Amino acid sequence: MSSHPPFAFDLLVRAPSAILADGSERACAVAVADGRIAAILPRDVRANAHRFVDLAADEVLLPGLVDTHVHVNEPGRTEWEGFASATAAAAAGGVTTLVDMPLNSVPPTIDVDALEVKRAAAAQQCRVDVGFWGGVVPNNMRSLRALHEAGVFGFKAFLADSGVAEFPPLSATQLAAALTVIASFDGLLIAHAEGPAELASAPPASGRSYAAFLASRPAAAERTAVEHLIDAARRTGARVHVVHLSSTEALQAVSVARAGGVRISAETCPHYLTITADDIPDGATQYKCCPPIRGREHQDALWLGLANGDIDIVVSDHSPCPPELKLPDEGDFAAAWGGIASLQLGLPVVWTAARARTQSLSDVVGWMSRHPADLVGLASKGRIEVGADADLVAFAPDAPFVVDTAELRHRHPVTPYAGRELTGVVRRTWLRGQEVHGPDAVDDHPGHLLRRAEAVADG
């Protein structure tokens, strides 16, 4: 018989400070067994474990981020982004769970067969856990329940042109029909909300002018579409979520609807919180996204919406493409692909701006970890508490760095944050207690493919 006591834990992480599930921040030791948090103990506890990690004095232990708005694009447009590159970028940015959008991949995730194609493409490639959204298009209403039962986390719809022909938008009548189906099994619809009539009547974008591009996607188009979504949700009783909210008017509509009992939530993105229209030079198409980045007054309203709870989460809307599709030589905002690549940088980007506005690191963790997990029903993600998955991040909140595109892990090193000085460095990331970014990171791909509700891994 061995004279040594049995190991109680697989891993013990001793932190001078950690942000716990209740939002409090304190020194502790987080004990991990079988991939889950087994105990939260005093930092100086004497315990038996296979591995010990002592965080540096300038590091804070955070729960892994949950990014519910990522365009991976594989299969079909893997040259834009793929599961291997996207999840490597996620791990480097402290994101331990992402949920992949149903469009830009081919086929789009609009039926169970397409979902299985995507799961097969992702299998054995992921450094972090990955779930999937289904899609709603005009001709797939009969597939929604089957997709729900197959484990998608909800359904993405466009109320205006998506930019890809294989994922057409819903009319007002089709939106109501989709919500009726989704409400029947208490699913969730997430919507890109811009009104096609308002976009059609706006002056067209032209050439290198950012002001012209901004005028072509007016805030009124976003507000009108959000109002239509709210009306349909009120009539059907369905749960709805507005993605990438960018404007004051749309935020006000969400706030009023929520107060009136509509089951609605909303997200915004790092670029809307940290960049304004005045920051964007003409021809700088790396900043193009839809809805567009707007003026300072909209940005201030978004921060207020986060502070008062009218905006629930902050997620990346990571939507990369090959550099040539951004038309860097022409700088044509009308013709360039829209989408901002930021998956690896979201935490320091948001934290740098949040601390300047006297928001706490605990606030940021809520917006980027626990609340996104709650949106999609992942009760074991995005929190440091006993029983949760041991998805952890060693973050140095006061450490400055300059964004170097050579260090980005997503497929193409194009981002509007290139050269920007930020504060906050992700030094290590653990997925269920296994290090996936940092000095002792594993070389394999331990990420699981997740299903709705029960969050069962496919393997």
Mind explaining what this structure looks like?
By secondary structure, the chain is α/β, with parallel strands linked by helices. The protein has helices at residues 83-92, 112-122, 144-150, 172-184, 196-201, 210-216, 219-236, 248-259, 270-274, 296-308, 346-356, 361-375; strands spanning 9-19, 25-33, 36-41, 49-54, 60-63, 65-70, 95-100, 129-132, 134-135, 155-158, 188-192, 239-242, 264-268, 313-314, 392-402, 421-431, 434-437. The strands form four sheets. The chain has a six-stranded parallel sheet. Strands 3-2-1-4 form a four-stranded mixed sheet. It has a four-stranded antiparallel sheet with strand order 5-15-16-17, with helices on one face. β9, α3 (144-150) and β10 form a beta-alpha-beta unit. α7 (219-236) packs parallel to α8 (248-259). The two termini are 36 Å apart. Mean pLDDT is 95; it is low at 454-459.
Question: What is this structure, in a nutshell?
Answer:
By secondary structure, the chain is an alpha/beta fold. The chain contains twelve helices and 17 strands. The strands form four sheets. Strands 9-10-11-12-13-14 form a six-stranded parallel β-sheet. A four-stranded mixed β-sheet has the order 3-2-1-4. Strands 5-15-16-17 form a four-stranded antiparallel β-sheet, covered by helices on one side.
